[in-house]
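# step 3/5: fold
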Amino acid sequence: MSNLQQDPAIRSLLERMPKNIQTTFTDEQLAYLKIAIGARQWGNHAVDCRGVVKFFKYRYYYVFLAGRNRRELSAKEQKVARLSQALILSIAATFIILLTLLVLYLIKSALGIDIFAGYSFGVWSWFKGLFN
């Protein structure tokens, strides 16, 4: 059995045919079958949201797919991916740091600790006002 016949897409295709037909394909024919069916094969995605929206007399489809990327990325795609990753991590780190500072400030204010006498950011007053 050739390597192409071991391919999951080709195996799935061949299993739907009678045995006497399965054995008649050459490797070249199997390669072209793989190319032909490969364009239609999406695989499994963690998020797969598809639908149709009717807008006046027209209908539009949408597809939103998300999942692990198994493709080989080009140099440009790798650069964009690293930039996006750095941006998302920077935003997440900034959010976590600001949230931590807010919690620490609220704890400091609840304990009555004044770092600068007679000065307040007004966060403690705002926070107490949420519960009144």
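# step 4/5: annotate
Residues 74 and 80 are 10 Å apart (CA to CA).
# step 5/5: archive (pending)
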